[in-house]
Structure formats: C-alpha cells, structure tokens
Amino acid sequence: MRGMEEVVGASSPGTLPNACRCERTAGSAGGRILPHRRSVPLSDPAVHRPPTIHTVPLGETQTNAYLVVVESSEGRDCWIVDPGVDPQPLLDLVRREGLAPSAILLTHAHYDHIGGVDEIERALGRLPIRLHEAERAFCETPLLNLSMFGGRPITCRSPDATLSDGEELHLGSTRWRVLHTPGHSPGSVTLYEARHGIAIAGDLLFAGSIGRIDFPTSDAEAMKRSLRRVLEELPDATRVLPGHGPATTIGEERRANPFLQDDLQGW
User: Fold this and answer.
1) pTM, whole model, 2 decimals?
2) What CA–CA distance (Å, rounded) separates 237 from 255?
C-alpha cells in the first residue's frame, strides 16, 4: 500500500502515552453522506489509488491527527481527523500541501482529540464538524472531555452533524463506513475504508494495547463488544491507524495484543 501513510512530527515509534492506553500488569485487569467537492468518474485512474494519509502527532499526549487526502485528475479532496492540542504542525502541513479541507471528523471528543478545532477554524475558516451524537455535549463540557482534570479547560463548538453507525461517508473516490465502537468513550467511532483496508480507530485499539476504560464515561463491557466487532468484521490485513502511537494491523493485534487473547476474558 505504497504512499498510504506519511508520518509527520517527532513521535518516537512504539511510544504511547499512559494517559491514553491500558497497561497490562500481572494480576490486574487490564445514512447520511458527507458532502464532497466533486464526484470522480469511474474512468479516472485515481479511482483505484489509495488515499494518502498524513499522520501528525500533536500536543503533550502525541495524539495522532490525520490528514486524509484523495487525489483525482480534478484535484485533491481532504479531511482533518482528530485535530489535537497545539495543531500548528498540522496547519503547516495543510498550507505546505496547498490543501483545502472539507470537514473535521472526530473519532471521539476527549480534549486531546478536539483541542485544536478552534485554532484550525481560525486559520482555515469554519468547517463542518462531525461527531457521534453520544458526545455532542463533550465539546463544550471540560468535565466530560477530561480537560478539567488536567487543569486546562478545553472546549470547542458543537458538531454541525452527527456520525451514525453504518453511515457511509464519501471523500473523492473513497467510501468510509462509520462503525460505532464505544467503550473508551460512549461516542467513539472507527472510520473504515474497505477497498484499501484502512481503519482510523481513535482510542479503540493500539499497537499492543487498547484505549483506557477507567474514565468516568468509559464502559469495559462496551469496549469488549467493540473490540470483538472489529476483530469479526475487519480483515486481518486492515491497516489500523490509532489515536496514539504507531500504526498496526488487525491481524497483528489479533495475534499478539495481550488484551485480545482468550476471547477478551483476561481483563
């Protein structure tokens, strides 16, 4: 899948902030179509070209913001996914590439995934924001988005529209299915592009770990259901782009992730 991912920033490979992941220790439990600027004729050779996905780790938690770019003979369409705190590196990339994002998609609304929304909009203008309905209130509530616990209350405006389970989103020639994958938070979603085998998973699944389930709005049983769902529905070759740390695959996590063994009964 050459050209699918470009890593931008200074995140150390394999590192994952403890604020976001579960640690495995001995004896412990661990629809609606998005508007896009242009349709792409099926005769366009770019129809079969994978999207270019730039990964930009942001802020102290090194949250992976993603710039998803789809090219055609008529130009480039792009989304911003999860613009975290201090998004200047992401803005620099947008300007350097000469891109005009058409939307901001949020896998969930914890502060480290929404902290750059306001700055992005100040720089680029108002963009449609999409988020699952279950977390609409998180955007304007520091207690819910967890920023209150860090001593720096963070908010952004409410979404313009929601993301619903099973909804199909179009970006250029690509089609992304929304999977509601709660557990880490009630409105967590995974964005899945089947043709090219890509899943932008937020804080559901990491390389060797899973998202934390000890926050006030987390739900361990919902997390297990969500993890089982992606293991059942997504092929092993699916490239998983997580909210923190390096990319992985469904197959690698099925084989080696300690939280996914024994039918998820060990935590």
Assistant:
1) 0.86
2) 12
